[in-house]
Amino acid sequence: MWLAIKLAYRNLIGAGLRTWLNVLVLSFSFVVIIWLKGVMTGWDHQAKTDMTNYEIGGGQYWHEAYDPFDPLSLYDSHAPIPEAVRAEVQAGDMEPMLFLQGHIFPQGRMMPAIIKGIKPDQSIFKLPAASLDTVTDAIPAFIGAMMATSSRLEVGDRTTIRWRDANGTFDAAEILITAIFHSNVPSAEAAQVYIPLEKLWDISLLEGEATVLTFRDSEAERAELSGWVLKPKKLLTKSVDDMIKTKNAGQSVLYGILLLLAMLAIFDTQVLSIFRRQKEIGTYIALGYTRKEVVGLFTVEGTMHAVLAAVVSAAYGLPFLAWQARVGWTMPIDASQFGMAMAQTLYPVYSVGLVISTVLILTVTTAIVSYVPSRKIAKMSPTEALRGKLQ
Amino acid sequence: MHIIRIKNLTKRFPMGKGAFTALRNVSLNFAEGEFAGLIGPSGSGKTTLLNIIGSLDAPSDGSVEVLGQSIGALNAKEAARLRKENMGFIFQSYNLLQVHTVYENVEFPLLLLKFGADKRRKMVLDALEWVGLTDKEKSKPPQLSGGECQRVAIARAMVKRPAMVLADEPTANLDAANSHNILKTMEKLNRELKTTFVFATHDDKVINYLQRKIFLLDGRVDKDETIRPTTTGDHVARN
After folding, report:
1. How many domains does one find in chain B?
2. Is the C or the N end of chain A the one with fewer CB within 10 Å?
3. Cα atoms in the Cβ-side hemisphere of radius 13 Å centred on A376
4. In chain A, which residues have their Cβ closer than 8 Å to the Cβ of B57?
5. Assembly ipTM
6. Does residue A86 share a domain with residue A65?
7. A47: in domain
8. How does pLDDT run across B201-229, given as a tens digit for each residue?
């Protein structure tokens, strides 16, 4: 085997430009696949971190009637904070939030909005809840950047908010925008207004009630609460996993095309080698190789393209991948339009496993593609091969 | 001592629905240290006979024993080992590995024999010295003349000091001066290293150097002449 590797290396280096063209194509596949997979991993990591920080914490209990895709469910999806978790709420390890359907009227326009009650002293979310702790004649409120863009509201602006209380009576008040946050999480930003929880209890006549209870620790064992549905973090981030899975499947086509191009070059080279190097094959056999060993030599030679490609990839790919991990990849289109947690700039995250698995997959594929045409050698007549006669 | 024993050898090749008989009932023996040639026109069966002796082909009928091993009974691995350990080949078109240097070409048989690096280096330099190419060890075949290429091929065939060297039309692509140089080199190696040389040729230049001339015609031995005794002093067996 060592001899085959040594000879294959000599043959490849000796073949010059032909080898390096194949190696370049293959190394390009290495780098692009690792980079794309890194972007996906980075996106997954970023989306989950942002969702944790701005929306779901370590997991949630949802009121059994709550359906985030049905605004009308908000009228019924609230209940008193269960006795079993009150201590946790007191300790600040669980945040109750009350959601109410309402409208705001920026510049005289009417926009639907979910009014979310949140405690100003909460510490689970990275939301600017502390900005609600202010003295003002209006209700202090903060909104996300998406909401700010669509409503054209800025910090310091005032607008009217309308809601229905527990008795079904419409009421309205003025809010003052105290902060605008950027989260990359559309479901935490779009059409939502955050106001102090106690104020919302007060104006909705739903004292002590909540729609969602968010806990800090995602690892702790959680008990079932009557009238509430436990939503572990893994379940709440499933949409991200599903989207990444779908994106990965789509990208597999790109990997496939890249691999196909690289493998076509290798296959072509192998076929050409076997036809052009008949005399050489005969010579190897005359000098003491068996035909099987020559098949092995040609297979190793083909496979070594992948090894050289890995080395070449490391030479230009490592600096490129490291630079990308630092500056990230900024998408040319507005990421907020995707409707899911996605930053405008994605920072690729690479793991040793990712690099090793990519190298292994490409090397094994190259080995198979190299072996298939090389099998023809096993059927060659050495005497005909020595004469260079095509077989 | 006979290192090659051929008895009633027949070789047929399939051709269309029938078969072409390249060798018919050939019986020959070769002693150690012979400098012999299979002589005949194209199609006389000399290359076929050389290939069978070299275990690159198998007999259809009869027996061929090389160094006590029956060629027809060897499997691919055993045949490869026989070639690797005991035979050197020289071809008309040199058959050098084009992308390897002269040194690497000559070193190749020693790599197959798994010799150590130091031993390899010494043996390769010795072989290059025999053929007068020590200054070309880093050159590649495309940078060499035809005569130099054939000298590299001789060095490659001789480097492991095999029991026999089989040379198929070694001078066919060379001019007269180069042919004589090559033949003198091989004659010297035959004399000094006691290696058996078997040629397949129809080149008069080669024929003049042979100690034993075996004339083949239509796959049969037509004439078998010994001109001089072999380097070991044995006399060549006659048919």
Report:
1. 1
2. N
3. 18
4. 381-383
5. 0.88
6. yes
7. yes
8. 998 888 999 999 999 999 999 999 988 65
